[in-house]
Amino acid sequence: MATERRDQGPSTETSSSEYRDEEYEAHLERSRAVWDRWSDRYGMSERDFEPIREAAIDRLALEPGDRVLEVGCGPGVNFEPVRREIGAEGELVAVDYSPGMIANARDRIDARGWENVRVRRADATTVEFEEPFDAALASLSLSVMPDVRRTVEHIYRSIGPGARLGVVDVRPAPSGPVRVLNPLIRRFFRWYANWNPDGDVPGSLEAVFDDCEIVDTHFAGTAYTAICTKRDGD
Ligand SMILES: C[S@@+](CC[C@H](N)C(=O)[O-])C[C@H]1O[C@@H](n2cnc3c(N)ncnc32)[C@H](O)[C@@H]1O
User: Fold this and answer.
1) Quick one: signal sequence residues (predicted)?
2) What's the 161 CA to ligand 1 centre distance in angstroms?
């Protein structure tokens, strides 16, 4: 990915909260249904991606006291590793659209007695926060958003200058013989996750962030980790 920004940052012509159309709403509602359905059976995905998520969190170089935003937190699989880095004095604010996932995330928080981890049921593309975050994390969530570019723009606006966004996500195989399986991979992603076929996560990250790099790939390139940094002074 290029290290230079292609545009002048997120568009301000139409605010995210004004962006509503039937396709967007239909995608959001499908996501709610799909992820509510999976909310009680998330163990396999949790285990398979655990080392990848943890490596992405390491790359955020979090510090004690940091405020972190998590986008599409699911049942809270990242809470423990993030909290380990930010300590009891930091704060993790996690957003998810599925009530079932939010209930599981709350159970996890209550069971651990974490007072500095908060969850909100909201659309990550429009939810507003009072203060900018020191870092953000989106693992396996950006590619299921109804409008990927707008979600990335919204995250950009929600973090402070110099802050990093860590992304773990999936995509059809970008190269190599596995590409013959891409039609099947796309269908599986859509069925399993309500993956957005029109969304371009790497392209959106590159367009919106000043500095963005795919730092790791996994499973024949069908999964990747990207780290993006917001320019100081923005
Ligand atoms: C594959 S799960 C990822 C969960 C977790 N981050 C992980 O790494 O396992 C995708 C999550 O994104 C959430 N999601 C989908 N659309 C969303 C939206 N518009 N706003 C917030 N969360 C959303 C789903 O409810 C689901 O919990």
Assistant:
1) none
2) 25
